[in-house]
């Protein structure tokens, strides 16, 4: 858990991590990238600790080999792991600041979804954990 991390810092670091993950997809395969401007806080294990969660979608120029693409994303990071344990192919990556991302395909293999979460941090009493940030 990061005691000095603020909601704003957690959001900025996690969105940058999403951008870094998206950058591993070859440019010639990318039509456009859309990153959510806001996210929500989800509780962590310790009382009054939360993580900021966000999402980025990379729309492809056409269908791609799901397994090969997700394996390539996993191999782009020292700690990326490719798995089909959830019943569908996905890659899980951990960032240097405690961020995490689950990378998977959306419908019809024409978009890649990057669902992310920050490191856990203490939330000051005057910050609303139910708001969007």
List keywords for this structure.
133 residues; alpha+beta; eight-stranded antiparallel sheet; 2 helices; 20% helix; elongated
Helices, strands, pairings?
Blueprint: H1 7-22, E1 30-35, E2 40-43, E3 49-60, H2 66-75, E4 81-83, E5 90-94, E6 100-105, E7 111-117, E8 121-122
Antiparallel strand pairs: 1-3, 2-3, 3-7, 3-8, 4-5, 5-6, 6-7
How would you describe this protein?
With 133 residues, the chain is α+β, with helices and mostly antiparallel strands. It has one domain. Helices cover 20% and strands 34% of the residues. It is built from 2 helices and 8 strands, in the order αβββαβββββ. Strands 1, 2, 3, 4, 5, 6, 7 and 8 form an 8-stranded antiparallel beta sheet that branches. The protein is elongated. The chain starts with 6 loop residues before the first helix and ends in an 11-residue tail after the last strand. The mean pLDDT is 94.
Helical content (DSSP H or I, runs of 4+):
10-25%
In whole angstroms, how far apart are the ends? 19 Å
Rg for CA atoms: 15 Å
How many distinct folded domains?
Answer: 1
Give the strand tally. 8
What portion of residues belong to β-strands?
A: 25-35%
Overall average pLDDT? 94
Give the helices and strands as they follow along the chain.
HEEEHEEEEE
Large-scale geometry: elongated
Number of helices: 2
Query: Sheet bearing the most strands, described?
Result: 8 strands, antiparallel
Could you say which structural class the secondary elements and strand pairing correspond to?
Answer: alpha+beta
The unreliable regions are none
């Amino acid at each position: 858990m990061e005691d000095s991390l603020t909601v704003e810092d957690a959001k900025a670091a996690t969105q940058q991590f999403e951008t870094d993950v998206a950058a591993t997809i070859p440019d010639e395969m990318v039509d456009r990238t859309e990153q959510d401007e806001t996210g929500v806080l989800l509780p962590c294990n310790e009382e009054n600790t939360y993580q900021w969660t966000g999402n980025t979608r990379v729309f492809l120029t056409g269908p791609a080999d799901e397994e090969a693409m997700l394996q390539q994303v996993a191999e782009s990071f020292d700690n990326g792991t490719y798995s089909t344990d959830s019943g569908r192919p996905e890659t899980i990556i951990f960032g240097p600041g405690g961020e995490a991302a689950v990378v998977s395909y959306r419908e019809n293999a024409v978009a890649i979804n990057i669902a992310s979460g920050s490191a856990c941090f203490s939330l000051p009493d005057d910050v609303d954990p139910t708001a969007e940030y």
